[in-house]
Amino acid sequence: MAEDDIPSAYVSDKRTPPPSREELRARIPGWGADLDPADRPSSPKLQYSPGTTGAHWDFPDRQPGSEGREHSIEHAFVTPVFGTAQPLHGLSGAIRRLAYVRFSEARLAHWLLLIAGDRVDAWGSHLRSFASLHPDNPITETGVRTELTAGGTARSGRSDRRHQVLDPVVVAGPWVAGGAVMVLGARRVVRALRG
Fold this sequence. Notes:
By secondary structure, the chain is mainly alpha-helical. It is built from seven helices and no strands.
């Protein structure tokens, strides 16, 4: 391959100069329409004027209670304002804290641990619901009944038709597995008490 046949984007020295604004405007309709700031509707927003922001601080006042809050290891401190509605608790909180303390947000382990913490929290909520007067109902709360009674399987144009066959497995599988574990555990307890 001759040297002139190699596109200039792949060589260290750019042999061909970039096209001029006039050449680009002639070749591409509408090219450069936003070059003049007067033509841009967002132009006033792009001008930074410290007096017009309304801020009375250089750095916002910090919300109290940031000690011990989880934050990414890429950041030196918690953001000035943060949510406190769902504090971490129990085993799921320990898993999530581990994700923040140990792994960067760029690591897959960080996100997998957060997902695992979410699943542990969901299962904890399901188990707590059995102790209440209104336990979770997987048939009505997951939409399985609606799929069968409201014509969900017959609707055309659905993007999820191909994986619809797996939905009962995904929805019911964890419940069946959890029930099986409970039955096996109860059997062992009964055997241990008899023996």
